[in-house]
Amino acid sequence: MHRSLTRPLGDESGPAARRPAWWRTWLSWTPALIGIAAGVFQLVSDPHDLDGILTVLLLATGGYAVIAYAGRPAWSWPLLAVVVAIHLAGELLPVPGIALITIVTLEVVVLGAIQGRWRPPPREQAWQGWAGFGFIACVLSTVWLDTGAAVVVVAIGLLAHGAWDIVHLRRRVVVAPSMAQWCAGLDITLGAGALAIAVVG
């Protein structure tokens, strides 16, 4: 007799039962959707806001560096909150928040190299220091560029960081998957939107 005909009516162990409900699938992508919404909101609020997209790239870079240095993916969100707090402290200090995050990120990257924190495993850990330097270099290069060129450079940096987020999400290393999802949604949306606006004019 065919297997499906012999299965009890209450037995839901077939292929259909193993497929997650649509709402569970959407729920699992909530961080990415929130990131996309945040990126769209920022683009709509001020399409030509260089400081805004620069801050996002810096916070993403600083957040990853601090989390990778700590070696505790489970602490991803609290550590990112610390990085954001450092940036906000710039509002109360003579040093701008963007400068504070740049300094902290460079210090963490250099300290991590001295202490051997960028050695695998995981394999991606070996790239954290180089990635931190690369994204900071992208940010610092905007000092010598006009606004239009600076937006293009930062937008490309955001897209590159979005790809970096996806690598971490797929391999589930260094940062929490929810953070990698959220950051990918924000970085790619904001980077693609800012680049399109800059090119179109």
From TrEMBL:
Which organism does this record belong to? Mumia flava
Which UniProt keywords are listed? Membrane, Transmembrane, Transmembrane helix
**What is the recorded name of this protein?**
Uncharacterized protein
Q: Which residues cross the membrane?
A: 21-44, 50-67, 126-144, 150-167, 179-200
